[in-house]
């Protein structure tokens, strides 16, 4: 194929970065987000030239014991989250917004509706704050959205044809060929046979995916992989290896904005408050793909070195307390286990 390159169009006109974050034990430190931005700088610097939307998903209840996946935080966690949001705003504005002050942002309101429209309480109000050039946007819901509604809220504000969706605890660990990937997505936009609408990045569990049980145990998926897996060549001469992905993962991915909204979020009934895309729509997508209906989802996995190269590392944001404390925890674990031999204390 002979794709157009993205060199004739600004990356900020093509791509918006969506970062989702929520209460985390490392708050109010911004180390988690700083680690993500540092990985962008090292492995995909073009992302820092894009527009960015940050969604500060919040909590539902203050309890004695934090259960972050269920939206429960302690009183101290609630206090630190407010400070965390302020710190992250300053960090993002310094990185993307030309040092614009949080006090100078234009403010607005929005709603994230969900479920049956006959239930009047089925919506979450959120506040918006935005730089004057619309390069940086912050979304702050009054109640917990969950990853799915957080992404949908950001997508509705997106003005670019493509989005890069990134959860706050997945730093990059390998270089990503962003410009060639965007080239491929633009050129295959109207291709009904080999459309590229979504590209996921490989984590540990997705290494050698094309030869994994997720694929080879299903004859239709195995056949689709054999026919679709390829190295896409761009007009600039770049070669980008992709293999079909038979799932819609939440982990960092590049996608068509229009496809995301129409395929994943066609109506307010698509996802409930608090839900993850991969736990709901992702499962439905996989079931359809196992019946051969892959092209409607058009999901791919970036597949460098025949699927053996890792591109993401998971920091486990619900338990991660910062690099220094994680090192201390590992040292304590090693010390504790050094005192045991064969399950018995030395």
List the helices and strands and how they pair.
Elements: H1 11-14, E1 15-21, H2 31-43, E2 51-56, E3 61-62, E4 72-73, H3 75-96, E5 106-113, E6 123-130, E7 136-141, H4 147-157, E8 162-167, H5 178-187, E9 198-200, H6 213-216, H7 219-228, E10 230-233, E11 239-244, E12 253-256, H8 257-264, H9 281-289, E13 299-302, H10 323-338, E14 340-341, E15 344-345
Parallel strand pairs: 1-2, 1-8, 2-7, 3-4, 9-13
Antiparallel strand pairs: 5-6, 6-7, 8-12, 9-12, 10-11, 11-13, 14-15
Task: Tell me what you see in this structure.
The protein is α/β, with parallel strands linked by helices and 346 residues long. It has a single domain (11-307), classed as Spore Coat Polysaccharide Biosynthesis Protein SpsA, Chain A. The chain is built from 10 helices and 15 strands. It has helices at residues 11-14, 31-43, 75-96, 147-157, 178-187, 213-216, 219-228, 257-264, 281-289, 323-338, and strands at residues 15-21, 51-56, 61-62, 72-73, 106-113, 123-130, 136-141, 162-167, 198-200, 230-233, 239-244, 253-256, 299-302, 340-341, 344-345. Strands 5-6-7-2-1-8-12-9-13-11-10 form an 11-stranded mixed sheet, sandwiched between helices. Strand 14 and strand 15 (344-345) form a beta hairpin. The protein starts with 10 loop residues before the first helix and ends with a strand. The relative contact order is 0.16.
């Amino acid at each position: 194929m002979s794709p157009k390159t993205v060199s004739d169009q600004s990356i900020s006109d093509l791509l918006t970065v969506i970062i989702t974050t929520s209460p985390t034990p490392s708050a109010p430190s911004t180390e988690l987000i700083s680690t993500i931005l540092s990985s962008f700088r090292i492995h995909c610097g073009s992302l820092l030239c894009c527009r960015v939307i940050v969604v500060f998903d919040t909590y539902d209840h203050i309890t004695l014991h934090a259960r972050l996946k269920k939206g429960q935080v302690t009183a101290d966690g609630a206090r630190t989250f407010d400070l965390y949001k302020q710190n992250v705003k300053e960090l993002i504005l310094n990185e993307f917004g030309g040092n614009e002050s949080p006090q100078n942002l234009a403010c607005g309101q929005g709603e994230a509706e969900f479920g049956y429209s006959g239930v009047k309480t089925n919506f979450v109000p959120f506040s918006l704050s935005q730089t004057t050039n619309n390069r940086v946007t912050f979304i702050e819901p009054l109640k917990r959205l969950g990853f799915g509604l957080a992404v949908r809220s950001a997508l509705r504000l997106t003005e670019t044809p493509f989005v890069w969706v990134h959860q706050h605890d997945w730093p990059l660990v390998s270089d990503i060929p962003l410009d060639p990937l965007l080239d491929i997505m633009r050129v295959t936009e109207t291709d009904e046979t080999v459309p590229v609408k979504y590209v996921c990045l490989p984590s540990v569990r997705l290494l050698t995916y094309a030869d994994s049980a997720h694929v080879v145990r299903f004859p239709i998926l195995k056949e689709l992989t054999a026919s679709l897996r390829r190295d896409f060549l761009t007009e600039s001469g770049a070669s980008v290896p992709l293999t079909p992905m038979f799932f819609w993962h939440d982990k960092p991915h590049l996608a068509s904005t229009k496809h995301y909204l129409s395929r994943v979020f066609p109506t307010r009934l698509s996802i409930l408050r608090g839900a993850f895309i991969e736990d709901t729509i992702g499962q439905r997508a996989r079931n359809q793909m196992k019946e051969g209906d892959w092209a409607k989802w058009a999901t791919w996995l970036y597949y460098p070195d025949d699927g053996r190269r890792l591109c993401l590392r998971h920091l486990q944001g619900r338990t991660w307390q910062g690099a220094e404390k994680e090192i201390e925890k590992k040292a304590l674990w090693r010390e504790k286990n050094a005192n045991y031999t064969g399950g018995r204390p030395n």
